[in-house]
Amino acid sequence: MADTSPPAVTYASYLKIDELLSLQQPRSEGPEHDEMLFIVIHQVYELWFKELLHEFDRVRALLRQDGPDDSHRAQHVFKRILTILKVLVAQIDILETMTPLEFLSFRRRLDAASGFQSDQFRQIEFVLGMKSEQAVARSPQGSRARAALEQRLGQPTLWDAFVEYVAREGYDVADVPRALITIYRTDPKNAELCERFVDLDEGIQEWRYRHVKMVERTIGTRAGTGGSSGAPYLQGTINRPLFPDLWAIRSQL
Ligand code: HEM
Q1: What is the reported pTM?
Q2: How far is CA 179 from CA 123, 124, 166, 236, 251, in A?
Q3: 148 CB less than 6 Å from ligand 1?
Q4: Which residue numbers in the chain have pLDDT < 70?
Q5: Which protein residue has the closest C-alpha to ligand 1 atom 4?
Q6: How far is the CA of 37 from the CAs of 24, 41, 44, 121, 250, in angstroms?
């Protein structure tokens, strides 16, 4: 009798290695050597963005539910998120091994493509409180990206979930800065959680800073492929905190 059992799972079948390795398709003539690095690094970023969104959803859910160990578990997930963020920042070192001329060798083949259009990056901004209807409107109607952004636009942010949690912990959140000051002064467990938000904020700002420096050293003051002014536009996005209350209270502690 023929064996009808499904084929055993292998490394290649489980991870869809053949499909994965067929997804790097340079556009330049030759192709130019460095275009492979450029494609791989962006794809790796998108995979980590996917994982980050998965973990942000987890922290948010843990902060919103009321189990006995949930804040402890939220801290645990935060640690993973912050470790991934360090990898994302470190990856910029790899791309900085590409010189301006190496990049220019294939840049015009990018047409108007730019990280500016990364919907997962916008989703991360949304969940961290930087929501933008304009960013939703830029995604094509009916696309996966549009649906994902619309969904996240209507969802509570990580900070909303944290404020809900703080209220459940017995603080009056009509005045959030005051509640945070009391936490820092009297409540070590929740002060630690606040510190993880500050780590996250600093980590995202660090990525933005490293990205703009990489852009300056690679394309100088040229305009971006995505249609912005390039480095000057990006300069305007750094030093903008995600959780301003946590920075504002520090001089009062
Ligand atoms: C040689 C490498 C790179 C250059 C020259 C570059 C250049 C730029 C420029 C000029 C912009 C401004 C928007 C525009 O007009 O295009 C931009 C935005 C952006 N890039 Fe890059 N980029 C590079 C690598 C990366 C990588 C590896 C990522 C990872 C996903 C990335 C993600 C982003 C994101 C998310 C934005 C939007 C930032 C915002 O609007 O706040 N970029 N990039």
Answers
A1: 0.96
A2: 28, 26, 8, 31, 15
A3: no
A4: 1
A5: 215
A6: 10, 6, 10, 20, 41
